[in-house]
Design a protein that fits this description.
Blueprint lengths: L2 H27 L1 H17 L3 H22 L6 E9 L4 E5 L2 E7 L9 E13 L4 E12 L4 H20 L1 H12 L7 H9 L10 H30 L4 H16 L8 H15 L7 H23 L5 H25 L1 E2 L3 H25 L3 H28 L4 E2 L2 H18 L10 H11 L5 E5 L3 E6 L2 E6 L6 H8 L3 E4 L3 E4 L3 E6 L2 E6 L2 E6 L10 E4 L5 E6 L4 E4 L1
Helix pairs in contact: 1-2, 1-3, 1-9, 4-5, 5-12, 7-8, 7-12, 8-9, 9-10, 10-11, 11-12, 11-14, 12-13, 14-15
């Protein structure tokens, strides 16, 4: 095969990995639909009549499935080593032999990064989207010796604490979250402000951070040493999906010259995706993975075209505008699907604030290297303080000037995706593709009329119910913003502090402490939202770890989408 064909093969393999992983997930929810999709895939491979491609893609179709089977089939003993990777009020998440488990029991005195030897009781409960195998209850434990990972967590915390003594908690959280993704102490108000300004990606280690750090390392240490030292930064930041993706692409770019090959960004992106799916089989379903890859595809495909379109603008504004807009081409619908909101001021926010944040990222990482040298550390902390002060002033001004965040429904997202698909096929010469937009009308019918009862739950403590034109929004917690979700769900009625609601003599909804009981004619379902074990004699829909879910009630069955 020619070099160009080899590059295309990487893209094909990545697409097959996505399809294979998605079918593995679907198999747990609807086996027949998964079988139909697999059959369609192999029929398509046969129809293209390329035996070599058929064999290669068939092999690579099986690889993620085998990888997933290996990941989710793990037998635990009563005594296991656990790495603590997340903690909350209810427990946390830990890794056992590279697999993720929810943690409960004796976890109060544990810290992030701790490695323990624990007596456990396991409950199997696979959640493929989150890579969770089940829940582990810790009866007792002993802390093990500090290793490299534990040291990294403690160093990040030590840097934060040292900064906090000089700058206070809030500014220390801003600097460490922007510089190396230490978001544990980030203020909620700061998070909301960044979301409203469209720059929330600045406080999670993204490709932007990796490019900045890699460029700096290349200038200081040269082309050969930069990739080796950069891997330390990837580990230090917690191996975020977007960081690994950016590192692999930058590594491919660096290796292209000595190997006398032209760099193909789509091939580099595909290779990064393949490695990530093999490394973490569940990574495909993470929001960070999807947004990182979609924004990068948008930049690869549209950045140069938009740059030429804005040729009249000054270079710094032209480049910032083209990157910001091109990165939104594919991420826009997913931002709505996941967060139900979109910042109209994202372009201004990125143009004015990201250059300032870039300086804080560079200074913050130099802080991390020099935090043992007090004089230099104090000087850099002093600089960071004033840069965050300027950031605060600019952010406050922009929030008052720029339009408010739009609260949008999935209707906009799905319609936008259908429109993109229509435009693509229409430009490829399939003129009849214009009729594909009729599916939007069908979709709108199911959304607004809802011929089947539909319940949606949102992590803010909101539940919406729609059935045959009647749409209601319910507050499950005190102090939630009903107006926002009333707008998102197009609801006519709203309920606060409810006990029992009846929907068209078809559904009866009752609140049982923190859980929800659904009576559907002759059947009863308990939507479990609380962390405690229940003793109800109902069909359980376990949603206690879900940030969002949708339940559709058909005649003889229900469909649950997490």
């Amino acid at each position: 095969m020619k070099y160009k064909e080899n590059m295309n093969i990487l893209l094909y393999i990545f697409i097959v990995f996505i399809l294979s992983s998605s079918i593995f997930l679907l198999f747990y929810k609807d086996k027949w639909l998964a079988i139909i999709l697999v059959s369609c895939f192999f029929i398509f491979l046969v129809l293209i009549r390329k035996i070599d491609l058929l064999i290669i893609l068939t092999i690579f179709f099986l690889v993620p499935i085998v990888n997933n089977i290996f990941y989710y089939n793990l037998n635990l003993s009563n005594l296991e080593e656990i790495r603590i990777i997340s903690l909350n009020n209810y427990g946390g998440i830990g890794e056992i032999k590279g697999r993720k488990f929810y943690l409960s029991g004796e976890v109060k005195n544990l810290r992030l990064g701790d490695k323990i030897l624990a007596n456990i009781n396991e409950t199997k409960d696979i959640n493929i989207e989150k890579g969770i195998i089940g829940e582990v209850s810790i009866d007792s434990y002993e802390k093990l010796e500090i290793d490299i990972k534990s040291k990294i967590y403690s160093v990040r915390e030590e840097i934060f604490n040292t900064l906090r003594e000089k700058l206070g908690s809030r500014r220390s959280a801003l600097i460490t979250s922007m510089a190396f993704g230490y978001t544990e102490f980030l203020d909620r108000e700061d998070t909301n402000n960044m979301k409203n300004l469209g720059i929330l990606h600045a406080v999670s280690v993204s490709g932007l951070h990796m490019v900045l750090v890699y460029s700096l390392l290349r200038k200081i240490f040269g082309e050969k040493m930069a990739p080796i030292i950069a891997i330390i930064y990837v580990i230090f930041t917690g191996c975020a999906t977007s960081t690994i993706r950016a590192y692999i692409m930058l590594l491919c770019l660096s290796l292209a010259v000595p190997f006398r090959r032209s760099y193909n960004p789509l091939a580099g992106l595909s290779l990064a995706g393949i490695i990530l799916i093999l490394y973490k089989p569940y990574s495909l379903f993470e929001v960070g993975f999807q947004l990182s890859f979609l924004s990068t595809i948008g930049i690869i495909l549209f950045n140069k075209k938009m740059n030429k379109y804005f040729y009249r603008l000054p270079k710094i504004i032209r480049e910032g505008t083209s990157i910001s807009l091109s990165s939104q081409v594919f991420t826009f619908p997913f931002l709505i699907l996941y967060f139900k909101e979109f910042s109209l001021g994202f372009l201004v926010g990125n143009l004015l604030l990201i250059p300032l944040i870039n300086i804080i990222v560079i200074l913050g990482n130099i802080l991390a290297v020099t935090f043992k040298f007090k004089v230099l550390f104090n000087y850099l902390a002093f600089l960071c303080y004033y840069f965050t002060l300027v950031l605060d002033i600019l952010s406050e001004k922009l929030i008052t000037i720029l339009p408010n965040t739009l609260y949008l429904n999935e209707i906009i997202a799905i319609s936008y995706i259908i429109l993109l698909i229509t435009i693509y096929f229409y430009k490829k010469g399939y003129k009849n593709a214009i009729y594909f937009n009729l599916t939007i009308i069908i979709y709108l019918y199911f959304i607004f009329y809802s011929p089947f009862p539909k319940i949606e739950y949102y992590k803010d403590g909101i539940m919406s119910i729609s059935f045959k034109g009647e749409r209601n929004v319910i507050a499950l917690k005190e102090g939630v913003k009903l107006d926002k979700y009333k707008s998102i769900t197009f609801s006519k009625k709203e309920y606060e502090n409810f006990k029992r609601i009846r929907i068209k003599d078809y559904l009866e909804i009752e609140k049982l402490n923190k859980d929800i009981l659904i009576k559907n004619r002759d059947k009863k379902y308990l939507i479990q939202l609380s962390k405690k074990k229940n003793h109800y004699n109902y069909d359980i829909i376990d949603c206690k770890h879900s940030n969002y879910f949708k339940i559709i009630f058909l005649k003889n069955r229900i469909l649950v989408f997490n």
